[in-house]
Amino acid sequence: MAKNTTAYFLHKQVLQQTRFDSSDTTNIRDIFTPATEDAWVYDIIITSTYNVSVGATIYLHEISTGINIPIKRLTGSNLILANQGTSGTSANPLRLLQSSDGNQLTVRLLDRDQNYYLTVPTGWKLRASMESTIATGIVTFLVMSRNFEI
Question: N or C: which end of the chain has fewer CB within 10 A?
Answer without folding.
Answer: N
